[in-house]
Predict the 3D structure of the following.
Amino acid sequence: MSVTLNQPAPDFTLHNTEKQPVTLSSLRGHKVVLYFFPAAFTGVCTKELCAVRDDLASYNSVNAKVFGISTDTLFTLGKFKEEQGYNFDLLADYNKEVCNLYGAQYEEFVFGMKGTAKRSAFVIDENGIVKYAQVNESAGDLPDFDAVKAALA
């Protein structure tokens, strides 16, 4: 499955690293940015999320909530968040349902891992409508942060 621009974003509930459920539809009234990433503690994923961490003020200035999503466990993501000082929620899609809903899932990733999240970025407006979608085939490619910010403007 995949998302379509200018259509409602697929709703979901995932748990954050504090073991609290986060439901997309409960965030109406805020812009939402979803950054899917393959795996915690890897080089490119760390670089991506540190760039978001270091620029979180620009997201906050437009009333946007930012979430990182991977298929890691919430415990792994909790340690990753703590070690890197991330100032936004990381959500665990361990059952790979949300990655599949958003078309952001590798059938097979490195070392035979199946269902890992593709590096992707989605911007959802205050009404729950998808305004930007980028799904990278190469895990080495970072999201287009400038395009994300333009979609938030």
